[in-house]
């Protein structure tokens, strides 16, 4: 019996830890500063990357001031192939960012393995124009192997203020099978969630070290969870429409 995917993920985690900790620390410091100032942390991704945006939102053990920009036409449940086409359309991300209420001194994480499509590049450019700090989570190996589809000819990593490499390979899937052309076992979801939760936990640690009380959700499936969460939600409900 062989579960090679597990070994690949173990190696990937070690690589992320050995190569990305410096920039992850910088981003964690930025997140702590942003929350202290009363600002919001936004997340945006298309296709499977939208799952990374949902992971930290309204989450037990997650920060309260998290706003995922979730557009159904860019997600799989509203038509999988359609989402592939829509993420190549220019103009949509500008509308989504405007609708979200994102403002100067907020942060946005833009997640895209290839970093080449219009929606993600445009979101990063528009966010920078509004004065947000842009954090990209991408596969540099994949992104550098393809051309941008955006009219600027830029890719996500070339636009962002901070770039975190998820250390994935071209095409994402990493398990090679004998006498079979296709690979299986995409790594980006595991890697991206690891990166996000590591940054959030570190940001909380930074705030605690500075004598601050971080706004963190408690599980609603504990007896005290509902009452606790009602209190922490009050400060942010007016800005985070999804709450």
Describe, in plain words, how this protein is organized in 3D.
By secondary structure, the chain is of the alpha/beta class. It has a single domain, classed as Rossmann fold (3-Layer(aba) Sandwich), CATH 3.40.50. The protein has nine helices and seven strands. Strands 2-1-3-4-5 form a five-stranded parallel beta sheet, sandwiched between helices. Strands 6-7 form a two-stranded antiparallel sheet. Helix 1 runs parallel beside helix 8 and helix 4 crosses helix 5. The mean pLDDT is 96.
Question: Could you write a compact summary of the structure shown?
Answer:
This is UPF0309 protein. The chain has 243 residues and is of the alpha/beta class. Helices cover 43% and strands 12% of the residues.
Features:
single chain, about 240 residues, alpha/beta, Rossmann fold, five-stranded parallel sheet, two-stranded antiparallel sheet, 9 helices, 7 strands, about 45% helix, globular
Briefly, what CATH class?
A: Alpha Beta
> Compute the gyration radius: what is it?
18 Å
Fold-level CATH name: Rossmann fold
Tell me the major beta sheet. 5 strands, parallel
Return the average pLDDT rounded to an integer.
96
Spans where pLDDT lies below 50 across 5 or more residues: none
CATH superfamily: Glucose-6-phosphate isomerase like protein, domain 1
How does the helix and strand content classify structurally? alpha/beta
Strand count: 7
